[in-house]
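HOLO CASE FILE
Compound: 5-O-phosphono-beta-D-ribofuranosylamine
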Amino acid sequence: MNKRVSAVVLVSGGGTNLQALLDAVEDGSLDIDIAAVISNTAQAQALDRAQRYGVPALCIPSAGKTRDAYEKELTDAILQYEPDCIVFAGYLRVLTDTFFTGLRGFTGPLFNIHPSLLPAFGGEGMYGSNVHTAVIKSGAKISGCTVHLVTGDVDAGPIVMQAAVPVLSTDTPETLAARVLAQEHVLYPRALRAFAEGRLRFEKTRVIITPKEPLDGAVLYSEE
Ligand code: GRF
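Model generated. Tokens follow.
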């Protein structure tokens, strides 16, 4: 039997995306082994979620140390689990070369989820409600979320899967965030399932999914 694909999940906050992954593993719709959850802050509610599922939950504080020292410590911790992939789920630190160099020898993908349809509304400073405020201000009619690969350029790695939601004229950043987040919870398990099933092919700037997802990877959501 093939070894289950394993993942280390990096978090900083509430961990609702982590919860969606834990739920999908538990209900059998996502066949991966979440080997550990690592947070850069002890306050992350995500750590409690991991513990409740018996998943090793580590805090490696980023505060009070140099960026280099922190990133070295983080990569050492990740590599001890020998994961097949690294999953960023609401991890709020921007990582530098030390992190990527520290992962030398690790050949698996690094996944992130971002609450907009990249390449729009991404990059430094585009996190949390900043994203949704900018989307509303732009007048865009459609927003969504993107699972993409993490590279040294913030939010600019190859796109794996996207889901779209409407932007309503009555939206506030909070209502739009909630609509997008609900789709994140569907999309992330779905993207990782495609990886676990060996259906992702990584090209230089693109990720090809075969067999393709229904609607070619787009989960379309419309109001009743
Ligand atoms: C999500 O909106 C995700 O797209 C972004 O950070 C948020 C994390 O939420 N990267 P949670 O911690 O998973 O609830």
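CASE NOTES: Residues 13-17, 89-90, 113-115, 145, 181, 184 surround 5-O-phosphono-beta-D-ribofuranosylamine (CB under 6 Å). The beta strands are 5-11, 32-39, 57-59, 85-88, 110-114, 142-149, 159-166, 200-202, 207-209, 218-220.
CLOSED: yes
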